[in-house]
């Protein structure tokens, strides 16, 4: 077994253990492998180990990999911030976008989504820790944006995404994720089709699962630390 396959197996075991300890159904939490800046060979190894969902942050890095791996049945997630002049590539090439935080971007993605593809799955990014340096919608502004998003034919609003402040202890993690879960449940009254709570990374996976995450985004624990420079989009 390769080291990546072993890492995926260990991560899945951790997820399943967290599900069990939180009283969650087995298999209720999915794994998104965050492959940003990682070479194609690593993604192939992960695919051979059974991984199908991959998350990318940088278009300049992602698009060549998508072309090289086009024969594989990969579900591609764009999880980084998106400038308005970069929306077409996401609308045309990706299956999911996790960092939606502006109506302008949403409208462009909807207009640019090819009509022969299913609507683009999107998650609304929430700035749950109220960090000035972080993207995302303030929790009290989310409902108004959700009401607009559900009108756009090229998009399918699937849920919410958040990255709580770094350095929180477990109690702080649980508190932030609990607020996300509560907001998610409130917004389902407006958008009952929402089924995805994208939260939890390598350092806070257990807390995220305890508070209702349905999709954890794991990079370092699978692929190791970032080992080359960030591409310039």
UniProtKB/TrEMBL annotation:
Cofactor requirements of the protein: pyridoxal 5'-phosphate
Modified residues (N6-(pyridoxal phosphate)lysine): 36
Keywords: Pyridoxal phosphate
GO terms assigned for molecular function: pyridoxal phosphate binding
Domain Alanine racemase N-terminal: 25-226
SUPFAM superfamilies: PLP-binding barrel (SSF51419)
Keyword Mitochondrion among UniProt keywords: no
PROSITE patterns in alphabetical order: UPF0001
Coiled coil: none
InterPro entries: Ala_racemase_N, PLP-binding_barrel, PyrdxlP_homeostasis
Functional description taken from the UniProt entry: Pyridoxal 5'-phosphate (PLP)-binding protein, which is involved in PLP homeostasis.
Family from the record: Belongs to the pyridoxal phosphate-binding protein YggS/PROSC family.
PANTHER family registered for this protein in UniProt: PROLINE SYNTHETASE CO-TRANSCRIBED BACTERIAL HOMOLOG PROTEIN, PYRIDOXAL PHOSPHATE HOMEOSTASIS PROTEIN
Name this polypeptide is given: Pyridoxal phosphate homeostasis protein
